[in-house]
């Protein structure tokens, strides 16, 4: 199964030599699941010609806000709607989670409660999973018809499903704790409050349930669709 990675941001140059870029992280996360990958740098206006060019799509995280004025955002929203209407499976992570919600009628904004950073627990329908987080923006209003799959007190729309067509997660299952530590040291200074980074740093040795989400993503991509175009 060929998965197209829609890359909406770039990993910090200081961290990329060790961690790779975001598509590399997803390839590692989903290794052994029978997928091949092709990356499209949509952040640089490199888009697929058609929603059927791959068997499924994965939208990465980004330092950009989905509500900001960037050239790639309107065509990406159009692509999301076309994929949804064509029943081509799509997964969105962090920025990807947010832009899917925005494209389908939800609302995303800079959250007044501040940042979520590092290992964070989420309630996935009675199952507690710990995943690395790195976000200030949130989906504050889910689109009509979306189902909330995960939440916590800080983030009420932490994972969403759009029927059998789209699955999105606010957290970063592709981020290892070493990468979060690197983000704190590169992008976090002067952006994330010191107390938030200190608390996150104290939790970085906690185990994360990244492989549980990896399996869910793989199962979602491989599941038969109720409708096909």
TrEMBL record:
Its EC number is 3.4.-.-. This is Type 1 glutamine amidotransferase. InterPro entries: ChyE-like, Class_I_gatase-like, GATASE. The keyword Hydrolase applies. It comes from the Bacteria. It comes from Gemmobacter denitrificans. Keywords: Glutamine amidotransferase, Hydrolase. One of its GO terms (molecular function) is hydrolase activity. Residues 42-178 form the Glutamine amidotransferase domain.
């Amino acid at each position: 199964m060929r998965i197209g990675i829609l890359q909406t941001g770039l990993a910090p140059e200081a961290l990329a030599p060790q961690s790779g870029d975001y598509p590399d992280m997803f390839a590692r996360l989903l290794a052994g699941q029978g997928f091949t990958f092709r990356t499209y740098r949509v952040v640089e206006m490199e888009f697929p010609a058609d929603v059927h060019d791959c068997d499924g799509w994965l939208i990465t995280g980004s330092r950009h806000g989905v509500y900001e004025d960037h050239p790639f955002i309107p065509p990406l929203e159009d692509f999301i709607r076309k994929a949804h209407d064509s029943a081509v499976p799509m997964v969105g992570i962090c920025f990807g989670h947010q832009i899917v919600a925005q494209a389908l009628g939800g609302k995303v904004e800079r959250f007044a409660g501040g940042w979520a950073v590092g290992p964070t627990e989420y309630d996935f329908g009675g199952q507690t999973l710990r995943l690395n987080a790195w976000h200030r923006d949130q989906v504050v209003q889910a689109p009509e018809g979306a189902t909330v799959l995960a939440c916590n007190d800080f983030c009420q729309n932490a994972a969403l499903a759009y029927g059998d067509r789209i699955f999105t997660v606010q957290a970063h299952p592709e981020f290892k704790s070493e990468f979060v530590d690197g983000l704190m040291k590169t992008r976090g200074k002067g952006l994330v409050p010191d107390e938030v980074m200190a608390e996150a740093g104290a939790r970085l040795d906690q185990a994360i349930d990244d492989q549980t989400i990896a399996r869910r993503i793989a199962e979602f991509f491989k599941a038969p669709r109720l409708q096909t175009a």
